[in-house]
């Protein structure tokens, strides 16, 4: 019964999306004004119906209703409840339902609260959101029904991929989807502004919170996904340039550029064309990522390999949505006025340079991701990995970091470099000192060397905008910028240290034997069997000591065997200190009775994820600052309007 209710809610939501599209389109005409008035309430109800359908899916997963095909294929009665629920979006159909749910709720929220835009632009925006949603509703209902029934009902489910039965990955996809859908709202705002030719500060102020929120969720999702891959997959790396990893990175790069452009447009009425173009590009990258993950052309632990028919459906949606948006942009770009002018030496100029560099990195990642797929379709096997991505990205990332350090100290409109030159003395000295120290004490490759010296300089430069200002009265948006830029420096130092100074050791040891990795002594104390709710494992007890006089600590890496579905996994064990992380993985037993251990000592590697969280925190502070400022302005405007109405009424009474 619950499944049928969920399916019925989906059909109704799809019908309302069609009505929203029709009403929003006709509402732009004089004759359709009456129909335009129903668009906002229709958008709200559509979002509620989609949310109800998703809760129905969560319920059938929570009770393990095996008569629902999706539950039977992706759940098991013995799984812990949290992984039963996570199974609802740990598959193709469920993740797409989550997508349309967040999109519907976001559209309803926009319709409910947004009052800053002219009504025509708002109608066009909601029509654009409905157009995108309608394609995904059609995809779900016609080819990916999440509530399809099974007959006969199986005795037990097949279970969720054991690699996905992890708390980190249970929350990783929802955060990414929230980011993707936030970009869909920005896309709809851009389409609405293009349709009505009303690209200006009001449009940017309406779009900015959605871009910020999307960027925050993408940052958290990418950070969580990186850490999950690091500790769960057992290979000791935090980023592999996997196409599915790139599928989340590309929207983030575009959203970062969009975030800066929309802020300039909102505050200074500049970069109008940049903002609209990036609004389209950012969501385009989300759509490209959706196609890569769900088309079946990739094989990855992250990907949902589906049949080619579904992949063709997604490709058609991508062509319609993005092709249509780019066509509209090409037709209307000439009508978008330039906006306020500024000198190249200004904060706006620095942001334009950074946007160009970000777009260049985006192009490099996009080419490196798609080229092997195109080559394979033509009959050639090509591998593109870190040897391409790292140096090619660095060509643009290094100057971008320099501009990132200097830009926040520049004035708006026009500035003189000599004015800020004295502020850059200390960061420049830190870069020189750090570079000299690295040359003197270590043999570091060029890219990690540049990352370390620039990271140290950027860390200092990022706090310079606080100099000479009253910190208690400083806007939250400025704090957000400082924290986010400092987070980039922290993450950069962590990435570079991990690359430059990591020590790896693969050994075969007997019980009681001690081996050395970096400053750590590691003793295999014993191997013992353990059991979990839906797995059994062999667990190694490692006694580890930092240096000759360090305290002995225990690590317990495991080799697990899941039975639903049958699969073996390696569960790494991590020991974190202030200066790095010890990473241990248990392998198999050899014929001579020795056990394989894979050990890493990774100096400062936790800074990668600490930096990612600081970047997201900076975005959150900026979002709170912008929202509170907008609310305050709205309240002031309402009070002024009420005062004027009262004065007019008083004059009328006297007359």
TrEMBL record:
Its main location: membrane. One of its GO terms (molecular function) is lyase activity. It holds the Pfam family CcmF_C. The keyword Cell inner membrane applies. InterPro entries: CcmF_C (IPR032523), Cyt_c_assembly (IPR002541), Cyt_c_biogenesis (IPR003567), Cyt_c_biogenesis_CcmF (IPR003568). It is a multi-pass membrane protein. The chain crosses the membrane at residues 43-63, 96-113, 122-142, 177-197, 209-229, 249-267, 274-293, 313-331, 352-374, 394-412, 424-441, 447-464, 476-495, 604-624. Keywords: Cell inner membrane, Cell membrane, Cytochrome c-type biogenesis, Lyase, Membrane, Transmembrane, Transmembrane helix. It comes from the Bacteria. The keyword Cell membrane applies. Residues 315-626 form the Cytochrome c-type biogenesis protein CcmF C-terminal domain. Residues 89-295 form the Cytochrome c assembly protein domain. It is found in: Cell inner membrane. Required for the biogenesis of c-type cytochromes. Possible subunit of a heme lyase. PANTHER family: CYTOCHROME C ASSEMBLY PROTEIN-RELATED, CYTOCHROME C-TYPE BIOGENESIS PROTEIN CCMF. NCBIfam families: nrfE, PRK10369.1. Belongs to the CcmF/CycK/Ccl1/NrfE/CcsA family. This is Heme lyase CcmF/NrfE family subunit.
């Amino acid at each position: 019964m619950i499944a049928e209710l969920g399916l019925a809610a989906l059909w109704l939501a799809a019908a309302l999306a069609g009505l929203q599209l029709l009403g929003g389109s006709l509402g732009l005409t004089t004759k359709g004004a009456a129909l335009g008035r129903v668009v906002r309430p229709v958008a709200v109800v559509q979002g509620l119906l989609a949310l109800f359908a998703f809760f129905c899916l969560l319920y059938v997963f929570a009770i393990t209703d095996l008569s629902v095909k999706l539950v039977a294929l992706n759940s098991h009665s013995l799984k812990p409840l949290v992984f039963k629920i996570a199974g609802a979006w740990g598959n193709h159909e469920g993740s797409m339902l989550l997508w349309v749910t967040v999109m519907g709720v976001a559209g309803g929220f926009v319709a409910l609260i947004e009052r800053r835009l002219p009504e025509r632009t708002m109608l066009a925006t909601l029509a654009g959101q409905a157009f995108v949603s309608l394609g995904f509703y059609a995809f779900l209902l016609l080819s990916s029904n999440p509530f399809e029934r099974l007959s006969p009902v199986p005795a037990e489910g097949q279970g969720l991929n054991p690699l996905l039965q992890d708390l980190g990955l249970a929350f990783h996809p929802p955060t990414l989807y929230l980011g993707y859908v936030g970009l869909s709202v920005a896309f709809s705002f851009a389409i609405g502004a293009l349709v009505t030719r009303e690209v200006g500060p009001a449009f940017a102020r309406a779009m900015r919170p959605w871009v910020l929120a999307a960027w925050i969720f993408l940052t958290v999702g990418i950070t969580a996904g990186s850490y999950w891959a690091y500790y769960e997959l057992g290979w000791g790396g935090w980023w592999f340039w996997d196409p599915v990893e790139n599928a989340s990175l590309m929207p983030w790069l575009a959203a970062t550029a969009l975030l800066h452009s929309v802020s300039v447009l909102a505050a200074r009425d500049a970069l109008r064309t940049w903002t609209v173009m990036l609004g389209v590009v950012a969501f385009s990258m989300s759509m490209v990522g959706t196609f890569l993950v769900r088309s079946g052309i990739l094989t990855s632990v992250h990907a949902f390999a589906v049949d080619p028919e579904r992949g063709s459906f997604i490709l058609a949606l991508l062509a319609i949505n993005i092709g249509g948006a780019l066509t509209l942009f090409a037709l209307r770009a000439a009508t978008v006025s330039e906006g306020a002018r500024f000198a190249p030496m200004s904060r706006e100029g620095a942001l334009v340079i950074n946007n160009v560099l970000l777009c260049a990195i985006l192009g490099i990642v996009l080419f490196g991701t798609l080229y092997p797929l195109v080559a394979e379709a033509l009959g050639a096997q090509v591998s593109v990995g870190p040897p391409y991505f790292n140096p090619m990205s660095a060509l643009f990332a290094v100057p971008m970091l320099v501009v990132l350090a200097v830009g926040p100290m520049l004035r708006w409109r026009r500035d003189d470099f000599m004015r800020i030159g004295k502020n850059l003395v200390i960061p420049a000295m830190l870069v020189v000192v750090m570079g000299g120290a690295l040359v003197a004490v270590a043999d570091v490759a060029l890219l990690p060397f540049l990352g370390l010296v620039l990271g140290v300089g950027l860390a200092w430069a990022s706090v310079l905008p606080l100099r000479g200002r009253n910190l208690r009265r400083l806007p939250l948006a400025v704090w957000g910028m400082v924290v986010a830029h400092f987070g980039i420096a922290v993450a950069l130092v962590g990435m570079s240290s991990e690359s430059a100074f990591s020590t790896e050791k693969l050994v075969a040891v007997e019980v009681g034997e001690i081996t050395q990795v970096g400053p750590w002594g590691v003793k295999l104390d014993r191997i013992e069997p353990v059991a979990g709710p839906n797995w059994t494992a062999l667990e190694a007890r490692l006694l580890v000591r930092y240096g000759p006089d360090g305290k002995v600590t225990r690590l317990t890496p495991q080799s697990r065997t899941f039975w639903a579905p049958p699969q073996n996994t390696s569960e790494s064990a991590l020991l974190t200190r202030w200066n790095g992380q010890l990473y241990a993985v248990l392998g198999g037993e050899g014929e001579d009775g020795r056990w394989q251990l894979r050990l890493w000592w990774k100096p400062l590697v936790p800074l990668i994820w600490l930096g990612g969280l600081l970047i997201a925190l900076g975005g959150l502070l900026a979002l709170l600052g912008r929202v509170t400022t907008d609310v305050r302005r709205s309240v002031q405007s309402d009070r002024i309007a009420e005062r004027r109405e009262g004065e007019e009424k008083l004059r009328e009474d006297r007359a």
